[in-house]
Amino acid sequence: MLNMNDIVGSHDIVMITLDTLRYDVAVLEQDNCPHLCESGGWEKRHTPGSFTYAAHHAFFGGFLPTPANTDKASHVRLFHGKHSGLRTHPNTWLFDAPDIVSGLAQEGYRTICIGGVIFFTKKNKLSRVLPGYFQQSYWRMNFGVTNPNSTANQVDHALKLLDGISEQDKLFLFMNVSAIHGPNHYYIPNNRSDSVESQRAALRYVDGELGRLFASLRERERPVLCLVFSDHGTAYGEDGYEGHRLAHEVVWNVPYREFFL
Ligand SMILES: [Zn+2]
Description:
Elements: H1 4-7, E1 12-18, H2 23-28, E2 43-46, H3 52-60, E3 66-67, E4 79-81, E5 93-95, H4 100-106, E6 109-114, E7 136-138, H5 150-163, E8 170-177, H6 196-218, E9 224-229, E10 235-236, E11 242-243, H7 249-252, E12 253-260
Parallel strand pairs: 1-8, 1-9, 4-5, 6-7, 6-8
Antiparallel strand pairs: 2-3, 2-12, 9-12, 10-11
Helix pairs in contact: 5-6
Zinc ion (ZN) binds at residues 19-20, 51-52, 117, 231-232.
């Protein structure tokens, strides 16, 4: 179990949401994801929100996906708001802010957001809310869901930013990966519809690109805690359902990993 009180202040922290990745798809591709799964497999968790906007508010509030088991004692939170009146675990890092992003900024972290899906585009007031948690936030058209090279573009941008950041700076880097969200049919040649198979292909693509980001982060002076998970899954016709923002096990079960670089 991580002790976040030993990590906050001494480690860089990277949070990556693999937007819309289903738990079952992540497990099917575990052996084909050498970068994401180098040190272990996916943990099954339940998301606190069934679509991007809701889930990310919960995450930034310190509510990461909950372990998918009935043993409450194992549900130790990494982050928890101070003065909530609730009893917290000694390994939980308490932040005195409305959200973990500004809480980490108070601890001297530089907070950076690299957006992906529509809620990070900053194109209207609603889509400025989530990026607005961060000191620096970026979105480009070619980071979005319609670009088959979105993860390469997001990683290129992150690498450029990392080049300009002193090794002494404490870093909280958040990236919302858009490639696995629909449309993802184009990750299979001559395929016209999104499916479990095309989401699997998208995940393999994403893993390949994240390798460059992890290699660069490994070169930084501080050790890096990497938190990688999905914000929700999506339905491809199961029980008649399509998409997300609905309650179905293909939506509420999400893959989760924490590891060090
Ligand atoms: Zn999402």
